[in-house]
Amino acid sequence: MPIMRKTENEVFKMKNKTEIKTWGALKASGYQPKDIKTELRDNLMDALKNGKKIFPGILGYENTVIPDLQRAILSRHNINLLGLRGQAKTRIARQMTELLDEYIPVIEGSEINDDPFGPLSYYGREILATKGDEAPIAWLHWDDRFIEKLATPDVTVADLIGDIDPIKAANLKISYSDERAIHYGLIPRSNRCIFVINELPDLQARIQVALFNILQEGDIQIRGFRMRLPLDIQFVFTANPEDYTNRGSIVTPLKDRIQSQIVTHYPKDLATSRKITAQEAGSDSARDSFVEIPELLRNIIEQISFEARESEYVDAKSGVSARLSISALENLVSTAERRALINREKKTIARITDLWGTVPAINGKIELVYEGEQEGPVSVARFLINQAIRSQFVNYFPDPERFKRSKENNPYLSLLDWFNNEGEVDLFMDDTQAALEKKLFAVKGLKELVDQYYKKQSAEEKVLLMEFVLYGLAAYSQLNRDTLDQHVLFKDLFSSVFNSEEEDFGLN
After folding, report:
1. Would residue 32 be called left, alpha or beta, if left means φ above 0 and alpha means ψ between -120 and 50 degrees?
2. Class of residue 154 by CB neighbours under 10 A (exposed 0-12, middle 13-18, buried 19+)
3. What is the DSSP code string of 260-283?
4. What is the homologous superfamily of the domain 17-263 according to CATH?
5. What would the pLDDT profile of 252-305 be if each residue is shown by its tens digit?
6. What angle separates helix 270-280 from helix 323-342, to the nearest 10 degrees?
7. Does residue 1 carry a pLDDT above 60?
8. pLDDT attached to residue 505
9. In this structure, are residues 101 and 142 in contact, taking their beta carbons and an 8 Å threshold?
10. N or C: lower Cβ tally within 10 Å for the chain?
11. φ and ψ at residue 251, rounded to 5 degrees
12. Which stretches of 53-204 are DSSP H helices?
C-alpha cells in the first residue's frame, strides 16, 4: 500500500488543482513550486511525523537500509544503492515515487517537463513569452515521474544526454548551434523526476564522466555547444559489488559526487526470509487450498538460500538472490500439485521428497565456482537441499551427532537396527499418500520416534516428520541415501560399500 497520497501544495487550497489549465489560473491559485529533493524531503517529514510506514513491503531493512535512505532523502542527496542481486534495490527506487506529490504542473507539450515558474527549454520560454497567462498547463502524475535505465556497455552520451538532430535543424531552417536543434536524451527528459540507472559500473568510463557536471552543476554539453540546463532530478543509482572487479567500476570523481552510498544486504534471519518469500511467491487461491505447505518445508526452502550463501561450491561474490527461495517454493507447490493430479487426489500435503522438484529453480539462481562446476549444477543443488535438511533437523529432533559414539539413550537406535538388518525404504516421487504411509510405517521404531516428540500433530504431519527423520539421518551419515531419477532409496549406511553406483555423500 502507498505510504501517503499528498494531493496538494501546502499553500494550494483548491479542491481539484488539475482543473487548472492555464498559466494565469495557476498563478492566481497561489501554487508554490518546489524542487524534487525538497518535495521528497517535505513529504518524508510529514510521513515520519504522522507515523506512516515508509517503503512498505521492503522487509528486513527496518533498522538498516531504510533509516539510511530516510537520512539521505532528508539531506537532499543523490543515492547509490550498493548490494548483491536480489536485494530489492530497484524496488526501493521505484517506491520513492510514493514520496512525491500526486501531481505537479508542467508547460503542456514540453519535452523536459518545464516548470511553469522557471522553464528551461526554448519551447517553454517561448510559450510563456507568446501566450502569457493563456499558456497551457498540464499535470504530471507521480507514476510518470519515474524513469529507469539499465546501464549496458552500448549506452551512449546521446542516449543519456542528447545530440544534435540534423533533420530537425533542416526542417526549422536553423543552425546546429541553435538550441532548437537538440534532441534531448533520457536525463533532460527526466527533469523534475526520479531517474534511476541500474548497474552503474556497466557504463563505460567516458559515459560516467558525462554525468559529472549534471550531478554537480546541472550543466550538459552536446557536441561542444555550451548549454546551461539546471536540471531538477533525483538520481538513484544501483550497483553490484561484483561489478567492480568483473565488468567495470564507478569512476572515482563520479562516486565522489553521489552523496550517499547505502549498502543493502540479504535477510539476516529465517523468519524475515520466509516473510519475503510468502509476499513475493505467486499465489493462487484454488491451488493454495489444494496443496498444503507445512511450516517445516517452508523453513527448509529458506534454509537452502542460507546454505547457498555459505557454500564452498557457490560464488559468494555473485550472491544468492532472494528469488531462489521464491522460485523454489513455487516449484515445491507445483511438484506436490503434479503428484496429486496424477494420483487423482482431492488434496495433498507437500513432502520432503518433493524438494527434489526444486532443483531446476536452484540451478538458475546460483553461480558456481570451479569446484561447483566440477560437481555439476544438479549435484550442487541436491547438496544444498541436503545441507538445509541437516541444518533444520536439529530444530525438530535430537542431534544425531550426540549418539555416534554411545548407544545409550539413542532415540534412533531401533530404526537404525531395522536398516542394519537389511531393511530399506524406496520413496517414489509420485507415490500416493497411502503408498507413502505403508512404506514409512513398515520401518520399525520410526512412528514411535515421531510420537515421542510430536504427540499432538495431525496424522499427515506425523507422516511428513517420519519422512523427515529418514532424510535427516541420511544428512548426518547415519543412513545411506541414493537419489535416483524418480525415487530416493534409503538403506543401511555400510551396504553402500559394495554398491557399484556413485555414492550419494550429500552431492546427489
Report:
1. beta
2. exposed
3. EEEE----SSHHHHHHHHHHHS--
4. P-loop containing nucleotide triphosphate hydrolases (3.40.50.300)
5. 888 889 999 999 999 999 999 999 999 988 777 777 788 999 999 999 999 999
6. 60
7. no
8. 40
9. yes
10. N
11. -65, 145
12. 65-74, 89-95, 122-131, 157-160, 166-172, 186-189
Specify the higher pLDDT residue, 274 or 498: 274
Q: What is the pTM of this model?
A: 0.85
Question: pLDDT tens digit string along 64-103?
Answer: 999 999 999 999 999 999 999 899 999 999 999 999 999 9
Cα dihedral across residues 358, 364, 369, 374: positive or negative: positive
Are the C-beta atoms of residues 205 and 164 closer than 8 Å to each other? no
pLDDT digits (tens, 9 = 90+) for 198-210: 999 988 888 888 8
Q: 163's torsion region: left (phi>0), alpha (psi -120 to 50) or beta?
A: beta
Distance CA 393, CA 283 (A): 28
Per-residue pLDDT at 441 exceeds 90: yes
Integer Cα distance of 456 and 173 in angstroms: 86
Instruction: Spell out the long-range contacts of 91-95 with Cβ–Cβ below 8 A and sequence spacing 24 or more.
Output: 91/57, 91/58, 92/55, 92/58, 92/65, 92/264, 93/146, 93/148, 93/194, 93/196, 93/236, 93/238, 94/146, 94/148, 94/196, 95/55, 95/56, 95/57, 95/58
Name the maximum alpha-carbon separation found in the chain.
98
Q: Are 375 and 313 within 8 A, CB to CB?
A: yes
Averaged pLDDT score across all residues of the chain: 88
Q: CA 447, CA 465: separation in Å to the nearest integer?
A: 9
C-alpha cell read off for 45? 517529514
C-alpha cell at 252: 572515482
At residue 137, the 3 state secondary structure works out as strand
DSSP 8-state symbol, 229: -
CB count within 10 Å of CB 172 equals 12
- Evaluate if residue 475 carries a pLDDT over 60: yes
CA distances to 239, 253, 254 from 80, rounded to whole Å, are 7, 14, 11
Residue extents of the structural domains in the chain: 17-263, 270-498
